[in-house]
Automatic annotation (TrEMBL):
The keyword Protease does not apply. It holds the Pfam family Wzz. Keywords: ATP-binding, Cell inner membrane, Cell membrane, Kinase, Membrane, Nucleotide-binding, Transferase, Transmembrane, Transmembrane helix, Tyrosine-protein kinase. Its EC number is 2.7.10.2. It comes from Fulvimonas yonginensis. This is Polysaccharide biosynthesis tyrosine autokinase. Its main location: membrane. It catalyses: L-tyrosyl-[protein] + ATP = O-phospho-L-tyrosyl-[protein] + ADP + H(+). Residues 556-670 form the AAA domain. Belongs to the etk/wzc family. Residues 386-467 form the Tyrosine-protein kinase G-rich domain. The chain crosses the membrane at residues 31-50, 445-465. InterPro entries: AAA_dom, Bact_polysacc_biosynth/exp, GNVR, LPS_length_determ_N, P-loop_NTPase, Wzc-like_C.
Length: 738
């Protein structure tokens, strides 16, 4: 009767999520998760500690409603729906090249000068250096005087370079007593100079205003193109309106130097206000010029009208007009005055807009309405006597010209005052300021939390992806599902790894023995092999002979380890056991039981040596014998199919209680199928997490196609899992120490 280990398995759909197995996987890799998470936590803390802080400077400006160019136009523009906020246009103006370019020139932002610092920790040490006196410099650490350790400063007043050196890295090396040397990136000396003096050489003009540094300190210097610097600042400076049509614009700029950030926004806001004042003042000056050009013409018209009236009165001997004529005169003068003022406004609008502009069209419509009223009045005037009509016309011309001239004089005075006292329609609400106690970067708590969480997520992702990609079987049910009963589960042995590392090849190609059954007989893996020995005792009762073949689907399953230690365990029970290495290509049984691979099976089959020479005893293991693989032959499969191999097995059967044959993997070569026809029992070694279920099924099918039945499987190198068979299948049960 055959005895084997059987394990219950419940059917589960492929798309089901096994929460127990998922939790078990996480518990199995808990130290990896903890380690990676802790590593990311440490890196996050180091980063937020060593990272250079970035500060945000802010400034606020207000854009008010724009004042009209000519007095009297205010009501009209409001009627036509002029916007109360000019923020959209002003944002473009405040970040224009004109404004930012002037700020770049004033602050010399196109000249870069930064001291070189030790990688990673240099900036941190320099930030935390507290000088005792202004201008003090930290002494160099460990003699590395080329780095700045705190306090170093280089202020360049002028740096003009040829176009070929624009945006190219240069280096200033501090010398003694204010001397310095300018080099290029290839350490070629370009010029030498001294603080406060202008130095020239190789097309470069340079003047250093201040230099505080240890001799030998290196500064990275570059002269950037003016336009490139402006473009970079335009992208870095943010101008946003607070609320729709509020007219409040907030400027923000981030920089590691809070003083520079504040100075830049101060410059931009001041230059913007100045530019706005100049622009509005220029508009008032242009309007004043237009009014002054009209004054001589209107004055001439007034003089002509007055002279004509005087001449008529002297000729007609009449100086008075009737009450009816007086009323018509007042109405006519009022309308003509309004028409004249509207024409003046229309002329001013024509300087800025086309005749299709709504403002121009509105003025033209008002003039048309007034002219219609004037035409109606002129009909009434036509009913008056000729003398009264002429007197009315001349008096009207005088009064209209006089009022027009008076209005123009008033406008000229108003525009002159506006030009002289223009303050613009923008003002600085909040000057630039920077909160040095709260940098905007790095946000320490957030970064540490996110970095730690990222480490945990990456660890989980790595575990699950590796689990997904590694489709090797980790459950007995997967092996039994392909029709192979599992005879034993051999745990992964840490002692085996230690023995393998400790022992190895010795002189002249002779290997030292590292049988686990000999070195660590209480190991769990050896106990599992003893369980397999018991199962095989009953399985062999139905076998046709005492030959046991051990194979595997592919390489790396551990069949050599299983075969050698199984043989040792059976030999320890008092049975005579012969271990044959039938893998004449890459057999490695000699490296486990000890000895050399030569003088083995290949020479024995080919008749080069006798049986007595090939069969060896295993040192320290009574009743255990061994035949090595021999020299690698050119035709291993043909040798196994030779009659000599069959005859050899027939000779060996009666001499031993059990013969264990270690064969090559069945999916690699056909040697195992050839040997399988001679043996009574065939077992397949499956490695935990390595061999796939499809691979196991294919190996079983390959044996069956060749007429070799596989008795069962040995689940090798089973690792301890929080969920699964090995979680409860083996417990250490060692004897008490005396």
């Amino acid at each position: 009767m055959t005895t084997k280990q059987t394990f219950p398995s419940s059917p589960r759909r492929d798309d089901d999520i096994d929460l127990h197995a998922l939790l078990g996987t996480l518990l199995d890799h808990k130290w990896l998760i903890v380690g990676v998470t802790a590593l990311f936590f440490v890196f996050s803390v180091l980063y937020v500690t060593l990272a250079t802080p970035v500060y945000e400077a802010t400034a606020t400006v207000q854009v008010e409603q724009k004042v009209p160019s000519l007095p009297g136009l205010d009501d009209l523009t409001q009627t036509l729906g002029a916007s109360s906020s000019q923020a959209t246009t002003e944002i473009a103006l405040i970040t224009s090249r004109t404004v930012i370019g002037q700020a770049v020139t004033n602050l010399k932002l196109d000249i870069q000068a930064e001291p070189e610092r030790f990688p990673i920790i240099g900036n941190y040490l320099a930030r935390h250096y507290n000088p005792q006196m202004p201008g003090d410099v930290a002494p160099p650490l460990m003699g590395m005087d080329s780095y700045d350790w705190g306090g170093s400063q280089l202020d360049i007043f002028q740096l003009d370079v040829p176009s070929g050196l624009l945006d190219k890295p240069l280096h200033v090396i501090a010398g003694e007593h204010g001397a310095y040397t300018l080099t290029d990136d290839d350490d070629n000396v370009l010029l030498q100079g001294r603080v406060g003096q202008t130095a020239t050489g190789n097309g470069i003009t340079m003047q250093v205003q201040a230099l505080h540094a240890n001799p030998g300190t290196v500064f990275d210097v570059a002269r950037h193109s003016h336009l490139g610097t402006i473009t970079a600042l335009q992208a870095a400076i943010q101008a946003v309106e607070m609320g729709k049509d509020s007219g409040i614009i907030v400027l923000t700029y981030d920089n590691p130097d809070p003083v520079l950030a504040t100075q830049l926004l101060d410059q931009i806001s001041s230059l913007y206000v100045q530019q706005n004042v100049e622009r509005n003042s220029a508009e008032a000056a242009n309007s004043l010029k237009f009014v002054k050009e009209q004054l001589p013409k209107v004055k001439m018209d007034l003089e002509k009208a007055t002279a004509a009236l005087n001449a008529f009165q002297m000729r007609a001997h009449s100086v008075d007009i009737s009450l009816q004529t007086k009323g018509l005169l007042d109405q006519t003068v009022s309308i003509d005055t309004q028409i004249e003022n509207l024409r003046m406004q229309m002329a001013d609008v024509e300087r800025k807009f086309t005749s299709n502009h709504p403002t121009y069209q509105a003025l033209a419509a008002q003039i048309g309405q007034l002219q219609a009223k004037k035409a109606a009045l002129e009909k009434q005037v036509g009913n008056l006597p000729d003398t009264q009509q002429e007197l009315l016309r001349l008096t009207r011309d005088v009064q209209v010209s006089n009022e027009t001239y008076t209005n123009l004089l008033n406008q000229a005075q108003q525009l002159d005052i506006a030009r002289a006292g223009t303050v613009g329609n923008v003002r600085v609400v909040d000057r630039a300021a920077t909160n040095t106690n709260k940098p905007v970067w790095p946000p320490k708590m957030i970064l540490v939390f996110c970095g730690t969480a990222l480490g945990g997520l990456l660890a989980l992702a790595f575990i699950f992806i590796r689990q997904l990609l590694n489709r090797g079987v980790e459950d007995l049910a997967a092996i039994e599902h392909v029709g192979l009963p599992v005879y034993a589960c051999v745990p992964l042995s840490a002692a085996e790894r230690e023995i393998s590392v400790r022992t190895g090849k010795v002189r002249r190609g002779v290997y030292a023995q590292h049988l686990l059954a000999q070195s660590a007989p209480d190991d769990l893996a050896v106990e599992a092999l003893r369980s397999l020995r018991t199962s095989l005792h009953f399985a062999r009762l139905e076998a046709k002979n005492n030959l046991l073949m051990i194979s595997s689907p592919g390489p790396g399953a551990g069949k050599t380890f299983v075969g050698a230690n199984l043989a040792a365990v059976i030999a320890q029970a008092g049975q005579r056991v012969l271990l044959i290495d039938a893998d004449m290509r890459k057999g490695a049984l000699h490296s486990v039981v000890g000895g050399r691979p030569e003088q083995g099976l290949s020479e024995l089959i080919s008749g080069q040596i006798g049986l007595s020479e090939a069969v060896r005893t295993v040192e320290g293991a009574s009743n255990l014998y061994f035949i090595a693989r021999g020299k690698v032959p050119p035709n291993p499969s043909e040798l196994l199919m030779h009659a000599h191999f069959t005859a050899l097995l027939e000779k060996l059967k009666p001499r031993f209680d059990l013969i264990i044959i270690d064969t090559p993997p069945i999916l690699a070569v056909t040697d195992a199928a050839v040997i399988g026809h001679h043996v009574g029992t065939s077992l397949m070694v499956v490695r935990f997490g390595v061999n796939q279920a499809r691979e196991i099924a294919l190996a079983k099918q390959r044996f069956e196609q060749n007429g070799v039945p596989v008795k069962g499987a040995i689940f090798n190198a089973v690792e301890k899992r929080s969920a699964g068979y090995y979680a409860y299948a083996y417990y250490e049960y060692a004897g008490a120490k005396a």
